[in-house]
Amino acid sequence: MKKISAWILKALAAGLAALLLLNIWCYFYYNVPVHYTNETGATEYRWESNKFYRKGTEGFAFGCTNNEGFNNLSDYEPGQEIEILLMGSSHMEGMNTAQEDNAANLLNRLFEGEKYTYNIGTSGHTMEYCLSNLQAALDAYEPGEYVVIETRTLSFTTGELAALVNGEMKPIESHTGGLVELLQKLPYLRLMYTKYLSGDEGGGEEQTQSTQGEALEQPLKAELLGSALETAGQLCRERGVQLILVYDPTVYADDEGRGYTQTAEEDMQMVTDCCEKAGVVFVDLTESYLRGYEQQHKLPYGFYNTSPGMGHMNSWGHELFARAVFQTINELEG
To answer: Is 46 helix (H, G, I), strand (E, B) or coil?
Structure first.
């Protein structure tokens, strides 16, 4: 009995030592903050404030969240002037690139102090969530000139759009407190959960094509999307702000090495028409992305340690995104 007890104790000690070493290793490989419900409603949640993060699963980036838990180089002070409020998914959040290379900071460099961009891009925040949170974001930050919303897809379901229009978007919950929060603070367990359970390590919101069945619902989708964008456009106009929707598609390469996207023509036409009617500026990065691939052989997504073109937006994608927004604003202002 003593031998069995001693063996069990040794096994437990070895297991704890292994877990400790794995967490020390993950601290410098994959170390993501815990997230909490955002009390302002500008996003569904926010990360821990002033928290170091490291991501080595796609590229090898690290940085620190600001005082609000967002990925900005500077803290936010109440009443601070913000000319451009940037909203979007994990691609805009930009935790897979160097902080200075994400779209928000590139825009700040391009405008050279003339306009300040504040980034509240957050993982899991598709266009529908951004539009759902738009009024709260306008109340919280009072941007002076523009709201820029990023979307990875133009293929929406009637269910998603109906939930948005009816104010029934399912909250993105934050599981914090007690043992759950303690376990989230262990980098190795967080990595295992992300890799094998959450399914979020592949880049989040992938684009899908409309199926034949969905094509039959196109008029209803157009009606719902038009209503959602009209409401969003009106909210912005009431604040003297211009809403800009930016589409950043995935670029694929065929067997002969030529670049292409999988955007359905009917989806592109639907979004273009709805934006025009709602007074929303629509920026399509398809041509820019394809030209960048053809001329410089660069893909806007993927890293040296991932499949080419897959996963999150890389620094090249952020650069093209920032350039397009910068050019669009300059054209709007003459």
So the answer is: strand
> Could you give the CA distance from residue 77 to residue 82 in angstroms, rounded to a whole number?
11
Calculate the average pLDDT of the chain: 90
- 150-173: buried (b, 16+ CB within 10 Å) or exposed (e) per residue? bbbbbbbeeebbebbbeeebeebe
Quick check: 106 and 319 in contact, CB under 8 A? yes
As a whole number of angstroms, the distance between CA 107 and CA 114 comes to 10
CA angle centred on 302, ends 296 and 306, rounded to 5°: 125
Question: CA angle, corner 316, sides to 157 and 194, nearest 5?
Answer: 55
> What pLDDT score was predicted for residue 187?
80
Mean pLDDT across 169-175 = 88
State the pLDDT at residue 258.
92
Question: Which residues have C-beta within 8 Å of that of residue 58, sequence separation ≥ 6?
Answer: 96, 201, 203, 302, 303, 305, 306, 311, 312
Q: Which helix (H) or strand (E) holds 65?
A: none
Lowest pLDDT segment from 133-147, 280-294, 300-314: 300-314
Q: Is 44 left (phi over 0), alpha (psi -120 to 50) or beta?
A: alpha
Determine contact, residues 87/148, Cβ cutoff 8 Å: yes
φ, ψ for residue 164, nearest 5 deg: -65, -50
* Mean pLDDT, residues 174-199: 72
Is the predicted pLDDT of residue 206 greater than 50, yes or no? Answer: no
Q: Nearest 5°: CA angle at 245, between 223 and 95?
A: 130
CB 152 within 8 A of CB 130: no
Question: CA 26 to CA 230: how far, in whole Å?
Answer: 45
CB of 58 closer than 8 Å to CB of 311: yes
Cα separation of 101 and 113, whole Å? 17
Q: What is the model's pTM?
A: 0.89
Is residue 151 a contact partner of residue 207, using CB atoms and an 8 Å limit? no
Give the DSSP letter string of 263-274: --HHHHHHHHHH
Quick: pLDDT tens for 242-257: 999 999 999 999 989 8
